[in-house]
Amino acid sequence: MRSRRSRDPTRRTSRSSVRGAGNRRRLMATRVVIAEDEAIIRLDLRETLEEEGYVVVAETGRGDKAVELIREHKPDLAILDIKMPGLDGLQASRLISADKICPVVLLTAFSQREIVEQARDAGALAYIVKPFQKSDLVPAIEVALGRFREMQLLASEVGALEEQLETRKLIDRAKGVLIDKSGLSESDAYAFIQRSAMSERARMKDIAEQILAGTLMP
Questions:
Q1: Residue 112's pLDDT band (cuts 50, 70, 90)
Q2: Cα separation values, 12 from 8, 18, 93, 113, Å
Q3: Architecture of 160-213 per CATH?
Q4: pLDDT (tens digit, 9 = 90+) per residue, 38-88?
Q5: Which CATH class is domain 14-153?
């Protein structure tokens, strides 16, 4: 009789361990600053975050100190309580959001619509109602991180479009100068700018600026 192949009981466990380790390594890249004036809640928050693989780089019980720490450490995420001495979480969130350092998750003991709107207006990308649950904390963090990445991408795309528009305007002005002063046709003026950019290994925008400054002509 053919013997049945025995199963290795460690195979499933080892695969799960590998997946868990991978998730942990992924999350460990996320550096967090905590600001909560109640020491017990702050400790609980820190322990929960570290259990989930996040790295707490700094913590404080004051809002003004939180802004200093965030500007110093430039973390991937800030978790701020709304009620804190020195500076409340809403004010701190406005400053952090204006600097575009990192996404903010606000902690609040209330879930009224007014509080939610205030948190949103202050630039917070997610909020958690205290007492928080681990099942609420991680999703809120990941939502905030995802929204922040989307905002950064959008800002980058807008910046690129603005740069393209500015370059086009400069080139058009430079072509006008070449047409007026050198008698070139529009196509020849553009070709001159293009050739000059290639020969000097410069951007067409830079060549256009040289033409407008009078330092480069055919």
A1: low
A2: 8, 10, 44, 46
A3: Orthogonal Bundle (1.10)
A4: 999 999 999 999 988 899 999 999 999 999 999 999 999 999 998 899 888
A5: alpha beta
